[in-house]
Every structure is written in C-alpha cells, then in structure tokens.
C-alpha cells in the first residue's frame, strides 16, 4: 500500500506552484524554450518546458533525464503519427504541473485543494499535477513524487526570478538553454545561458544468442509478406485493485500490412516483459509462416528491438509512423468497447 501524502507536504508543493504561476512564466518562454536544472543529487539534469504562451493550455513539464528530453522533442517533431500513439513519447520520467479547469481534477485533488484553503476560480487557474509512468495512465502524485517535485520547483522558481530580474539573454532559437546550477567555485547557485547538449540516445538492442533457434529462423523461406509490429496505445484506462494507479491500455500486436489481418496480439500489463513479447511474436511468425519481405515498426525503440534479428536474417526493417492495419484495429477495438 502506498504511503499517504501528508497535507503539509501538499501545502509545500502548492505554495511554490502558486508563486511560479504569479510570475506568469509563459510571458517569457515558448514551450520549446528549455530550462535546465543541474542538481547535485541527480545524475542527469531535469529539463523544464513552460507551456501557455499560445493562450490555450497552461502548464510546466518536468522531464527527468536525457531520454525524457529526447522524447519531448519527438513529440514536437512527430506530425504523421496518430494522436493517441504519440503518448508513447511521454510515458515515463515525466511530471506535469497543470494550470487548468476544475473539472480536470480528481475528486481526491479537489478535497486537497479544499483542505488547504486554496481559492482557485475560473479557467486555467486550478493547479494540479500528473505523474507519467510506463504502463500506467497519468495519475496523481505519490509521496515520493510530491517531495521530489517540491524541491525541484523551488529551484525552478529561483531560476525564473533570476531570468526575469537580471534580464538574462538566452538565444533559444540557436540551441541555447537557461541553466540553473550550483557553481562550486563561486559557492553559490547561478543562472545563465549555455548550449543545450543532448547525448546521443542509447537504445536497447537484444541479441539472439540461441544459435540453434537462429539457424531455424534463417532457414525459413522468404515470403512476399509485409508485416507491422507495434506496442499500440488503446486510449483506454483500466482500473485494477492490484495496482495503486490506473493502467494504460497497451497491446503488443503483429499484423499483415497488405491484408489488414491481425495475426497475433497480447494486452500488456505493467509487469509484462514487452521486449520478450515483441521478439516472441516475430520469431513465432517466422517459424510458422516464413520470413517476411518487410517489417514495419512505428518508432525507434521498436526498431532497435528488432534490428539485430532482422540484420542476421536479412529481413528489411523500416520505421513508419502510420501503420494502417494496426491503426484500423486499434480504432475498431476502442469503438467496440
């Protein structure tokens, strides 16, 4: 059972969120203008995106580490993927502070706001928080996240104050970021402009070590088939008493691209080994049907899961943001429910 967040801990988080809101940071930043917090206790930076300059949606996204920031840019750059599938790029190591409307809050959050004596009124004025974890739907913060975000938002608050007060010039369009970090030489926290450096992402690349199985796969005849493989998001939320937060509907699926037929599928639970399911589906297909001429996957993560297998078996592997057979199946699945 999760440890309950104390009202005093919520109070500390809401107090700093209110102070940040009072600064109207969206007057100074676009959502692609990244603020980088380099904290001694973290191995990787925390990246912050201020949303709201367009006047439609207000919030601050906190992206923990290099991979989370890489996914942030993928969300921005991906324009040809079905909307509900883009959420794969915001499924882990992300917390968002929203400035939204009353009806967007959970019942539990409305009670917290009431108990704290906060008086939010009108649109885009209700503060709430969402944690994003792989395999789960966005949900209210737990105790650890509340404490962590309270500390991080205090650093962000100081960075914003320094940026506004000192009129720091940051050339965001040329790849700079606003950095807030501790300067050991000066023995103080500093806020300054610096190049935004993002290390090249390292993806998991499984290597099949069973030489006997690999030999069986390689000997299978090559067919003219083209298949699609994906871990697709179903845009549904599953509540299960075994879990302390709602589960995101995700399905590992393999389909024939030409006929649209779904050949294999498995609805994933948070503890499932999705890597093994992907590999097992593809290998099972090859052993039963033959080697497909082409395999299409939706993203770089899945591409790297299959790249070694496809290279060693001479199967062409491609990234394709829209997977017609799987996308149709997902749409019909959701409508059927």
From TrEMBL:
DUF6930 domain: residues covered: 214-333
Domain DUF7309 stretches: 10-179
Pfam families (alphabetical): DUF6930, DUF7309
Protein name in the entry: NurA domain-containing protein
The species this protein was found in: Thermoanaerobacter uzonensis DSM 18761
